[in-house]
Amino acid sequence: MKIIGTGRSHPSLVVTNEMLTHILDTSDEWITSRTGIKERRVISSENLEDLAIDAAKKALADANMDAKDLDYIICANVVNEFVSPAMSCIIQGAIGATCPCFDLNGACVGFIYALEIAESFYRSGKYKNILIVCAEEPSRMVNWHDRTASVLFGDGAGAVVLTEGDNIKATKMSASCNWDRLYQKHELQYSPYNSKPNSNLPLVMHGQDVFMFATKAAIRDISNVLKQSGIKPDEVDHFLIHQANLRIIKSIKDFLRQPEEKFPLNIHRYGNTSSASVPILLDEVNKEGKLKRGDLIVLSAFGAGFVSGACILEW
Ligand code: UT7
Q: Does position 200 have pLDDT exceeding 70, yes or no?
């Protein structure tokens, strides 16, 4: 398969590091030097569905495709307003598509998971045009009084349209169960017949463990897809890495011994937007005209689970 359209959508509210110093014991210097983040977008008046629908419509317009021609919609998402139905159903109705759809929760790796699933759909020969939408609102997961986690995230949506092609060169997905390093429990109630206490726990993150996992996993997955495809790091034109922490991206860059220009960044503007991070970055470099036909692109993401994944594709 190949990517023929990209789109993204951001909340209008920009929350700078300086703004966070009014509600948290933190500083622009700490956040910038430890993460690379200067500001993030946070949902205020919008709904997450609005962003997802907007990104989907932009990707369809970029692909010059009518929603009626879609054969499948996959939405990557961790949390949204609805327990049911899936957010992909809401997107499907709003854009005027008639195809089947489902959601997947792959944490920050949702986009790479969706690409690999879409690739296997193509191989089955059953579906031709697939829309992937990644829409995330981590601002509703973190405790805004917890400076160790709340400064890291931002909300947003990214989307791609796929059709038949031979542009995916290799994919690698990994999982290792260390769920207690980064997790959040649902705000669900137990029945009076269940003795467990009801709880409303925000996101729990052991930052240094996640940092170490992320760096190792990304290097391992990227090395794997390069080996599978027989492509050397020098031949890759762009490395689009999950924008979680600038220091993680720099470690990957140093390991691969590749120049900075190959690693586009937007972490300073958006922070970590979970599964939307890589498709938002892809749309930015695409719309900036930085991608040429035939360019080789590595995508890599890592997140709660721990899960991780990488993919190499030709533009
Ligand atoms: O998609 C995956 C999502 N998660 C991640 O990507 C997180 C990966 N981990 C990280 O990015 C880093 O571990 C963090 C940015 C979260 C933290 O950076 P660190 O260099 O590992 O800092 P640390 O946790 O060792 O904390 C150092 C100090 C501590 O103070 P003390 O104990 O040395 O006095 C923290 O309490 O920094 C303090 N601190 C802060 N200070 C100001 C923690 N958060 C903040 C803050 N502002 N926001």
A: no
